[in-house]
Design a protein that fits this description.
This protein has 157 residues and is of the alpha+beta class. It has a single domain, classed as CBS-domain, CATH 3.10.580. The chain is built from seven helices and four strands. Strands 1-2 form a two-stranded antiparallel sheet. A two-stranded antiparallel sheet has the order 3-4. The termini are close together.
Length: 157
């Protein structure tokens, strides 16, 4: 059995211009760990994970929550020009600003055993499946594989 047999073909993805708040809403609302970022032709540009939504300099700050807080606090009247520019830049952050540009990807013909090794070795939970044109044709999550194993629809050798 290989990736094309178990991948989800209905992939929810975002464009690079998607706002951080929009990305967070999809991740949270769908219970996803990651979203592919694609161009108009559905070619993979990168991936954005839950971890990417935390400020790299301050990993305890969840960007969508912080942005929402800043918008609601109406602090901008008391901000210096420099602070105001930083605030505007942060509130306008897009998927392309925080995505990983070199995500792990797999072909539809890779074995389930190899997929599991990729998950384990790299401590990731989602893998976009791409064709020769780099178009996203599916996605496989660790949950998908565990679900199949629990239903005994998949046997790993």
């Amino acid at each position: 059995m290989n990736a094309k047999n178990i991948m989800s073909k209905r992939v929810i993805s975002v464009k690079p211009e998607a706002s951080i708040s929009e990305v967070a809403a999809i991740l949270h609302g769908k219970g996803f760990h990651a979203l592919p970022v694609v161009d108009r032709q559905k070619r993979l540009l990168g991936i954005i994970t839950e971890t990417d939504l935390f400020a790299r300099s301050f990993p305890m700050i969840h960007l969508p929550t912080y942005i929402d807080f800043l918008k609601k606090s109406k602090l901008d009247g008391n901000l210096s020009i420099k602070q105001r520019k930083s605030f505007e830049k942060l509130t306008q952050a897009e998927a392309k600003d925080v995505m990983s540009e070199t995500p792990f990807v797999i072909s539809p013909f890779i074995s389930i055993e190899k997929i599991l090794k990729i998950f384990q070795k790299n401590k990731i939970y989602s893998l976009p499946v791409i064709n020769n044109d780099k178009k996203v044709i599916g996605i496989i999550t660790l949950s998908d594989i565990i679900n199949l194993l629990s239903k005994k629809k998949l046997i790993i050798k």
